[in-house]
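Entry:
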Amino acid sequence: MLLDTASLYFRAYFGVPDSVRAPDGTPVNAVRGLLDFITRLVQDHRPDDLVACWDEDWRPQWRVDLIPSYKAHRVAVETAAGPDVEEIPDTLSPQVPVIEEVLAALGIARVGAAGYEADDVIGTLTGRAGGPVDIVTGDRDLFQLVDDARGVRVLYPRKGVGDCDLVDAELIRTKYGVWPDQYADFAALRGDTSDGLPGVKGIGEKTAAQLITEYGDLAGVRAAAEDPASRLTPAKRRGIVEAAAYLDVAPTVVRVAADVPLPEFDPALPAAPRDPEALEALVKRWGLGGAVGRLLPVLER
């Protein structure tokens, strides 16, 4: 089981009231929500391995070099040496180091790589996996990794830290009109305002799916735009041709990396805390007794 950790703690932050606080009054709603999320996931799915995949760089420079608008609207502070500082709620950012400390004390692997997003870590670990993989994320970009033959699926949270939709190839095909191995090309063509990807002018989600289905992939769509005999309308043909510079690089930006250099780590789901004393201190300091008390018995089973 691979967690898109930032996606989940953002969801926890907005799904759990900020009245959930430590003894000193500091909000810990994201911490408690994430722990409850992990408890529910382990209880429901019993993974052998669990990895909290981490954004060491939420906006990698190599993606920005290709598409400068990539996540630009979410930059709070530009940093010359990188990574840029992401704009996140004031009461969430202090909780992120607490999440790191709690995961370490529990013994849950937290894995990231300089210059890469959690998506890329997930893509690399999914490719390496010898068995089924559950990817837990609220980010649709990871639908591109779904593979029924290999048992790779996405658990997509519906609301807060509750139930997840099980996303397989048929669900993606039914909802978006494309198969998982076409999803990245579809997303590049459609664009994504939440990631600063402009897409092709005049082509929305439905049209992008129709084009990918008809021509197979983005290369096929672009070839059709250059072919006077194709059935493309003049407006679609013009839009695709005029977006050539964007379409040259968009697939590289949208597709998750599969070859991220990762550190050595133990992915095994711990049956007991790695550092009980540190965990006890964190529980006391941040008022996490309830959340940790719910998680530990689930880990022991």
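Residues 132 and 149 are 9 Å apart (CA to CA).
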